Amino acid sequence: MQMSRMGSPSIGMDEDSGAGHALSDFLLQLENYSPSIPDSVVAYYLNMSGFESQDPRLIRLIALASQKFLSDIANDALQHCKMRTSSQINQNSKNQKGPKEKKYVMTMEDLVPALQEYGISAKKPHYFV
Question: Could you tell me the pTM of the whole model?
Fold first, then answer.
């Protein structure tokens, strides 16, 4: 095995062709995938930020990354909501039986800490205070 300039082992031809095959399979799957965020919305915001691409696979890849980012934030907010409501339920009533299936409502109380984990600061508008 040869060492490259950076000190890491170089990839052999067999491993390189396997990675290329996996990448081409991924790109084919990406063409057939329809993300939650429409391509036109992603393309609009990419154009607004100065990025222009005619390749629909690239736009779908960015849509997929955006969808993953938003779902991570929503999941973190859900965890904050569950912790908040479970502590409220424990404080209010210890012997009462609660409903079998709880419905959670995302509030700014839950969303702000989840966004702060990703370096985004969010505040309530002054007319909601």
Answer: 0.68
